[in-house]
Design a protein that fits this description.
This protein has 19 helices and 14 strands. By secondary structure, the chain is α/β, with parallel strands linked by helices. The protein folds into four domains: 107 residues, Rossmann fold, CATH 3.40.50.2300; 164 residues, P-loop containing nucleotide triphosphate hydrolases (Rossmann fold), CATH 3.40.50.300; 66 residues, Helicase, Ruva Protein, domain 3, CATH 1.10.8.60; 54 residues, Orthogonal Bundle (Arc Repressor Mutant, subunit A), CATH 1.10.10. Strand 3, helix 3 and strand 4 form a beta-alpha-beta unit. Helix 17 packs across helix 18.
């Protein structure tokens, strides 16, 4: 267990006691402190893997404590507890390097999950250090971020399936992290030191895909000057990721099925010698594959053969509570990459992101933060640096059948004004028009 000793700092004696009881039952060694000063005293004397601290405490509060812990004991993970509805505190804590935060009212289940995840995180860091030495840079593995119940169940799934050899089908909308999850499974499996090979099935026509995957013998077709090993062989003892599997032809699907049924036995294109590769196959798709099967676009037998272990990745709009964590993760990443020093994101920006429906999921969020880091002139990301479509725009357009353009315009201005707390300048910036236009429209539509 990577987390053993935990210090709980909270000024409410009952809460302290409850936390102690709950966590000791889980086998953790718990110390208690009634405020930041008392906590600090203990941290100077002993080492803790984790500090769980309330933000609001008399004397020294949680944020100050967090800053001190980072200096004195940088490997200690700090989890902040914030009051209901004070997203600013959570944002500040994350910005100052908290590992995670919990919002009141909190449940024992949430606390336990966070500690479990922190343990995995610590293990993973150690594993990653080892991997970095062992494995080629291009196979790098980024951390999966999120603490919603949907993503927690994905973590559990990854841990559970990593050690098996069964075929996995990962389904989810574009940008939900399918490839990231495939890599996570590979690097947590016993094959982690063997290759992780990816084939993008959408990028190649059927016959080229076949030779890419299974290789070919010299002279197999015009242009096959030399014998070539396929990706299947290259992935021997490792993992083969078949990306965008829905984009293959039925002819190809038949061939792939045959190889999977024969436990990795195949012939190179134009060859007769049987080759065997011991490969864990992971397929991904952003289509609803079951529907494709029903419509006759995807072979049913292959579907069942691939779908031994199904993993469905939730869209970002189904787990919006992960947005602040993701934003800070990418903020750190792109600060580092660009040598920028953006400190935070305004609460208005965050509110806009919470409202947005994220058709491009996490990839879209990542791109938006990357762009905002480059564009922001000050220290804080303001709404005008976010290249989000105003979400009401889409809602309004989708309900526009009987609405006039003017009505839509009115709605849009009305909604945006509301989101911007009545601030006309911000509304204008958000909608990409001048403040004067907004003033005139407000007059025209009697908005106020
Ligand atoms: N939970 C997560 N935490 C952190 N980053 C994530 C997470 N999920 C996805 N990402 C990042 O989002 C981007 C898109 O992820 P990925 O390429 O795995 O998506 P995908 O589902 O394969 O998308 P597509 O269907 O378009 O190929 C990557 O940069 C990835 O690192
Ligand atoms: Mg992908």
């Amino acid at each position: 267990m990577a987390i053993e000793k935990i210090l709980v700092a909270d000024d409410e004696p009952l809460i302290r006691r409850l936390l102690q009881e709950i966590l000791e039952k889980e086998g953790y060694e718990i110390s208690l402190a009634e405020d930041g000063v008392a906590a600090l005293e203990q941290i100077k004397k002993e080492s803790f893997e984790m500090v769980i601290t309330d933000i609001r405490m008399p004397g020294m509060g949680g944020i100050e404590l967090l800053e001190m812990v980072n200096q004195i004991s940088p490997c200690t993970l700090v989890v902040a507890i914030t009051a209901h509805g004070s997203i600013e505190n959570a944002v500040e804590a994350m910005k100052k390097g908290a590992y995670d935060y919990l919002t009141k009212p909190i449940t024992p289940h949430q606390i336990k999950l966070i500690i479990q995840r922190a343990s995995q995180h610590k293990n993973l860091l150690e594993e990653n250090k080892y991997l970095r030495e062992e494995i080629n840079e291009k196979y790098h593995f980024e951390e999966l971020i999120g603490k919603s119940s949907q993503i927690e169940s994905i973590y559990r799934m990854i841990a559970r399936v990593a050690s098996s050899k069964s075929t996995i089908l990962i389904q989810g909308e574009t940008g939900t992290g399918k490839e990231l999850v495939a890599r996570a499974i590979h690097y947590r499996s016993s094959c982690r030191n063997n290759p992780f090979i990816k084939v993008n099935c959408a990028a190649l026509p059927s016959d080229l895909l076949e030779s890419e995957l299974f290789g070919h013998e010299q002279g197999a077709f015009t242009g096959a000057i030399k014998k070539k090993e396929g990706r299947f062989e290259l992935a021997n003892k490792g993992t083969l990721l078949l990306d965008e599997i829905s984009e293959t032809t039925t002819a190809f699907q038949v061939k792939l099925l045959r190889v999977l049924q024969k436990e990795g036995e195949f012939e190179r294109v134009g060859g007769t010698k049987t080759i065997k590769a011991d490969v864990r196959v992971i397929a991904t798709t952003n289509q609803k594959l079951e529907k494709n099967v029903r419509e006759g676009k995807f072979r049913e037998d292959l579907y069942y053969r691939l779908n031994v272990i199904p993993i469905f990745l939730p869209s970002l709009r189904e787990r919006k509570e992960d947005i602040p964590l993701l934003v800070h993760h990418f903020l750190r990443k792109y600060n580092r990459q660009n040598g920028a020093k953006i400190e935070s994101i305004s609460s208005q920006s965050l509110a806009l992101m919470q409202d947005y429906n994220w058709p491009g999921n996490i990839r879209e969020l990542e791109n938006i933060i990357e762009r905002a880091v480059v564009m922001t002139e000050g220290k804080v990301i303001l709404p005008e640096y976010l290249s989000l479509k105003v979400s009401s725009e889409e809602e309004i357009i989708s309900r526009s059948e009987k609405m006039t353009l003017e009505e839509m315009e009115k709605r849009l201005i009305e909604n945006t004004l509301q989101k911007m707390g009545g601030n006309r300048t911000r509304t204008a910036e958000m909608l990409g028009v001048t403040a004067r236009t907004i003033r005139n429209k407000i007059k025209k539509y009697y908005l106020n």
